[in-house]
Amino acid sequence: MSELSLERQLDVVSGNAEARIQQDRYTIAAEQQQREDELHNKRDLKRQMAAGEGLKNGLLPAVAAMNSHEIRQFSVSRLVNAISKAKKDQCLETDLSDAICGDLGTPPHGGTWLPLSISASGLDTKSNSGGNYLVQTSVSKNIADALRASCMVLRLGAEFIAGVKYSLALPVESNVMVANWIGGENTGVDATASDSSFAQRLMKPHAMIATTSCSRQLLTQSSDNLDKFITSRIAKAHGQLLDSAAINGSGNAPFQPVGVLNYAGIPVVSIGSNGGALAASHLIALETAVAAANGDQGNLSFLTNSAQRAKLRAIPEFASGTLPLWRDGKMLSYRAESSNQVPATLTKGSAIGTCSAVIFGNFSAITIVAFEGAVELTVDPYAGKKQGEIEISSYCSYDLGITTTGSLATIQDAL
Description:
Elements: H1 6-14, H2 17-52, H3 61-64, H4 68-73, H5 76-83, H6 92-104, E1 112-115, H7 135-141, H8 143-150, H9 152-155, E2 159-164, E3 168-175, E4 197-203, E5 206-215, H10 216-219, H11 224-248, E6 268-269, H12 280-292, E7 300-304, H13 306-312, E8 330-331, E9 334-338, E10 346-348, E11 351-362, E12 366-371, E13 374-384, E14 389-402, E15 408-414
Parallel strand pairs: 2-12, 6-15, 7-9
Antiparallel strand pairs: 1-13, 3-4, 5-14, 7-11, 8-9, 10-11, 11-15, 12-14, 13-14
């Protein structure tokens, strides 16, 4: 045991030892606080610099200011653990939520902000510096990426815009510019003028909530797999409801947006006064309707439900042929997908509640907007206390619009 210094011995003799120890504690605490303040100041400065550039790569300024170590350390499960306690723990994730409040100019309504994207897309995996370090992070912690994988219309090419703070006026092309041939110089005949004209579709927030639960025991296992589990549960719930709204939203204000099947101006191909079975001729009519509006450009796809997919697998492409209409994930050489968010309960004439829909066209004409660029999480540790579970609710506001209605066409009476 080392001998006490003369100064320490005098402190002991004079009874000042405890006061000196307390003073040392204050000094250490002050130094730690100074280091934390310096870290926060650096982060705030980076956030302010990022805010000056606006939303970059779909990231909020507070997220864009994070360094690679903070991105790797970010944990959704740790955030859930922190906010499930009576006195919320302070950690990287709650600090980020506070910084997002500054970005958005508004605090969450009793919950905590979780960014839709924690890292930018577009990283390669060829080298560690090029993104290999972040591969697992990008997959498990980006709600926006998981949302795209869970929402069929996004998988088919619909545009997704995150981080909109206010109501957005989406430009919609209502009249296309047309070119004319002219007969040379000084013909005395003016070419017919035709300008592109645009309307506006005002995108307004429509609030969405999804609730899931997670066992307390599972939350003690901090890992990327648990982050992926929580993120995918949130994204799947939001994605399915977005799919349903984008396909068949009624537009009943203020609750849900207007979907493709109810959107004014989108051509509808009719099979019969009381509906009817699909045939190749009806799919060709959909293709023709989109082509007639000059919308047959880009990646075109068919979308229907699983019941119609099963029938189309048994319908020959040609009357005397044996090859089915739906084969190898395609119809008429176009990509074909199914989703049970496409309704099978529509009505046409005497066919009440038994008709299905088919959508064809370029799904990039659909734009889905996520307001604020963050999901608000609230955690209730008491609702499932008898089952050892914690209830997790996620809130976000979305809207959708269609920029060119001629890019899509529908059938709504398939039996």
